[in-house]
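Hello Y.,

Per our agreement to keep a running log of every chain we model this quarter, I'm adding this entry. I've kept the format consistent with earlier entries: sequence first, then predicted structure.
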Amino acid sequence: MRAWRACSFRPGKTPVRYSVTVARRQAPPGSQTSLREANRARVVESLKRHGRLTQIELAGSTGLSPATVSNIVKELTASGLLHTSFTTSSGRRATLVSLARRLGLVAGVHYSSRHLHIAIADTARTIVTQSSLPLPLDHRHDSELDRLALLLGDMMESLGGSLSDLLAVGLALPAPIDPRTGMVSTPGLLRGWEGVDVAESLSIRIGRPVYVDSEANLGGLAEAREGNGRAAASTVFIRVGHTISAGLVVDGDLFRGVNGKAGQIGHVTLDENGPICRCSNRGCLETYAGGPALLSLFPPSEGMHRLGDLLQAAEAGDGSARRVIADAGRHIGIAAASLCNLFDPELIVVGGELGQAGEILMAPMRHSLERTALPSADGLPEIVGASFGEWAETRGAIAIALDHVTVLDAGAGLEGAPASGPLPGAASLPITA
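Predicted structure for the entry above:
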């Protein structure tokens, strides 16, 4: 037996709590019932992974026949687990399927070097509220996690709920994370956060499950699953901002490496006699193309204190600003060529704050890639901008949170849902993004 508590919300009315107890029987392996449950689970997992899909896309992603998918969608929609609407695909009317919004909410959090982004979404990945604020350069985990707990509580309260209504939280950090320990895997890359199990530390503060990964990995996950990399079998997401890193995605899944350090191209050596890097090596890509290196090229009188200042000047036509960004693109392209020779991706997506420079950055990247990467019969990987801009990593954090939420059989709610208290009525929540 499993009890599922929820709450119906009506604007201006007192929330009405109700409780449903669902009996679950384990079907014998190999039975028709067991096969049907397995097929339903494949449909639900595919929707968790990809968000909204047409029934034809669901059939392709699950390997089930269109007729089987249609029957499962009808069954789970009737039970309230799925939501359907109509769209047009290839000029024909199609049924668009997603998880029902009433199933609950998850949060995505992104700590970059200089900013904090927070978004709360339903299980269909629709953002219902979001917030962003600047951070000091050398922020520490203790004070920032305390503040995050308060912010999450305030945001949930504005939606008519509380922290206990969150199913899970995903969190992106600007450093590689060891998947075995949940800690920053390389000393010196994120001082103030080292030696700390960040997921456990935040989970203690808010009482909800938390999952942590690097910002490049989660930005890459968002772009590969629902952004510009969705149609590619393998993608590299290069995040360029105060720091430089990359996320490697194959068939929608991250490749992290043993210690979580895969994709750290910001610390590829361009000149072994070059400047000292924060990682203690010399001549790393970050010492030539990272935010601090670019800003240091301007005298204080020019007011280039943040990358936003550099981008604004370049957009206004400032020749020096455009040249600095183009030179950074040339250096990043050289490192990207080495990554292509090793990883051989189909697509390169460029994100992060400096990625907003567009072709000023990406055109020199392509030129360096053409000069230094090994050619193939299919040509070199295409280089495109990120589809979610500065929110890519936050959307990836939402995705990793949803990956860890297990949807039970139809009508039984979500495993990990709070044992008491309301699930906010998402149908009446304001949509802000």
